[in-house]
Amino acid sequence: MVLLEVIHTPFSLLMGVVVLTEGKNVTVITNFFLLGFQASKSLRIFQFCLFLLIYYGTICGNFLIIFLVSISKNLHTPMYFFISQLSISDILLTTNIVPKMLQILLHNGATITFIDCISQLYFFCASEAFECLLLTVMSYDRYVAICNPLRYTTIMTRSCCVKLAITSWGFGLSISLIEMITTAMLTFCGPNIIDHFFCDMNPLLDTACSDTSIVHLEITLLGTPSVIIPTVIIIISYAKIISAILKIPSSTGRQKAFSTCSSHITVVSIFYWTMFSVYVFPTKEETINISKLLSLLYTVFTHFINPIIYSLRNTNISAAVKKLLK
Question: Taking 50 as the threshold, does the pLDDT of residue 12 lie above it?
Fold first, then answer.
């Protein structure tokens, strides 16, 4: 009787062959099957059209903000520079997730190679980590603008903003790379079915037959501080911002100061609420379908409404749009 063992190696995954290791036949898993949302054909067609429209709006809206910030002199400020970086992250994340999800909806499921699955998970984790840090940087920017307005131009210089953005991107890309390397070294013996619409970490680890404790340890040591520390900084920043706003004597001044933060507060609330619901504090009653719906919020809908929030609630961007249309 021949013992059949399922493993993967980077070379064998690329070749898609059956190899012989230590006298044993080794079957290589070359792809996974993403179930997505199992539904009737008519419902899947409706979902396809809806998500295609949302994806188109996300790309156009975020590219519009990047374009406006680059050409409008009134938007050459730290706050709008960070908003344009957020738009870049939104485009990267949605392009990483939505096209494959559309394919899944058309065919009621789709296969994805192991390399593509790891790549999708890497860019997803990198974008999420970057956005956590960027939203923290944006809260610090609002803190300096409201609590130290006289020193704002000397603190938030262009070079400082570029360094903060590069640091955020570098941290997000590097911390995700460490986790992906460890994940790619695991042995996956199936079943190769992932009950999700993209390669998320938890569903992928469920298909591994080797010890995943090292991956969970890395997530705890690297991922948890990347979420908790920025959250604490944001809370402290806005506590001081609210305290400073309440000390403003005129109601007009308080309203104007709060309006500069309202868009950011809205984006932060949606982003962290959905992420904490899925990854940090998932409830026992949370089913796979509920988890998928929550994942839709922070992978699809949040990045669609971000440019809407920043454009509709921001007079400078609205003025830049009107000027462009004229």
Answer: no
Nearest-angstrom CA–CA distance, 42 and 119: 31
Across residues 299-303, what is the average pLDDT?
Answer: 87
At residue 26, the pLDDT reads 46
Closest CA to 210 of 182, 175, 176, 181: 182
* Omega prior to 191 cis, within 30 of 0: yes
Residues 4 and 306: their CA atoms lie apart, in Å, by 50
List 19's β-bridge partners, or say none. 26
* Strand locations in 165-261 (E): 193-194
Distance CA 137, CA 124 (A): 20
Strands 31-34 and 24-28: unpaired
**How far is 215 from 200, CA to CA, in rounded Å?**
14
Residue 191 tokens, joined: 């079943």
Over range 187-208, report the average pLDDT. Answer: 84
Identify the pLDDT of residue 313: 64
Taking the whole predicted model, whether its pTM rises above 0.70 is answered as yes
What is residue 280's predicted lDDT score, i.e. its pLDDT?
67
Distances (CA, A) of 305 to 73, 142, 172, 220: 25, 21, 23, 30
Strands lying side by side in the sheet with 110-113: 110-113, 31-34, 193-194
**Crossing angle between the packed helical segments 302-312 and 41-71, to the nearest 10 degrees:** 40
pLDDT for 277 equals 75
What's the rounded Cα separation, in Å, for the pair 38 and 166?
Answer: 40
Interior angle at CA 45, CA 44 and CA 47, nearest 5: 60
Burial code of 201-220, b = ≥16 C-beta within 10 A, e = fewer? bebbeebeeeebeebeebbe
Instruction: Answer with the residue of higher pLDDT: 133 or 207.
Output: 133
Nearest to 247 by CA among 147, 141, 151, 153: 147
Amino acid 6: pLDDT: 40
Classify each residue of 84-96 as buried b or exposed e, where b means 16 or more C-beta atoms within 10 Å of its C-beta.
bbbbbbbbbbbeb
